[in-house]
Design goal:
about 240 residues; alpha+beta; Glucose Permease (Domain IIA); 2 domains; about 25% helix; globular
């Protein structure tokens, strides 16, 4: 009788052991399947897990008022360049004619019309230049081409020391870059008159040290009147 009881107790112990192991293996298998079938649950449990083939999250659009992005259009630390339009807008020729009638000053002392060379369509790092390079000795005075307001002084990685000036109607912006230094006391918000010295020719930014010049650009502002945004106009057509 005792032998029979010992055998029955042994069989019951084995049954409980096997049942426990089966339950544990079943739970682990179910958990593994849930990770494969529901990647969102798996990612919460295993944050470092990357699902192969899952598309990357979309990158939010850049806010032009924030820091300039790293990329083909801008480099870190640069001021945003004026946004070019595709082709020529319907009002492009009218804008050129209007500015020609204003008789803008050539912004660099000692430079005459016949000294200017059209560099607007030149290539710069794979992009259209969209500006006029006016060669002159270092420290040659740079003057405001028209009455207006200094809206931004910016130290750019590409443009070096730069000035953005709105003319009085605030429909056009004049951009002066690669300056050696600003005129003493120049500040943002300051009103300047045509011919006032606002800076001096240099080679700051990405300009060559042995080729100081003024990088001069003009662009037509959008209705928002943002200094970093507008349609480029060819200064050569205006100053000549």
């Amino acid at each position: 009788m005792r032998r029979f009881e010992r055998r029955r107790t042994e069989r019951r112990r084995r049954f409980l052991l096997v049942s426990g192991l089966s339950f544990a293996l079943g739970a682990l298998t179910a958990a593994g399947l849930s990770w494969r079938l529901d990647p969102f649950v798996a990612d919460e449990i295993l944050p470092s897990r990357v699902t192969e083939g899952t598309p990357a999250a979309p990158v939010p659009p850049h806010d032009p008022a924030g820091p300039a992005p790293v990329g083909p259009r801008f480099e870190a630390g640069d001021a945003p360049k004026p946004l070019a339009t595709t082709g020529v807008s319907p009002g492009y020729a009218n804008a050129i004619d209007e500015l020609r009638d204003r008789d803008l000053l050539i912004p660099v002392d000692g430079v005459k019309e016949q000294d200017l060379r059209d560099t607007y369509f030149d290539s710069r790092d794979g992009r259209q230049h969209e500006a006029l390079d006016i060669m002159a000795p270092r420290s040659t005075p740079v003057r405001a081409v028209q009455d207006g307001r200094i809206v931004k002084l910016f130290d750019s990685k590409a443009g070096g020391l730069t000035i953005y000036q709105f003319e009085r109607s605030e429909r056009f912006c004049y951009y002066y870059a690669h300056l050696d230094r600003y005129a003493d006391g120049l500040r943002e918000g300051q009103m300047v008159r045509k011919g006032d010295v606002i800076g001096y020719v240099g080679s700051t930014g990405n300009a060559s040290e042995d080729a100081p010049h003024l990088h001069f650009a003009i662009f037509r502002l959008t209705p928002e009147k943002q200094w970093w945004k507008g349609e480029p106009l060819n200064p050569y057509l205006i100053l000549r």
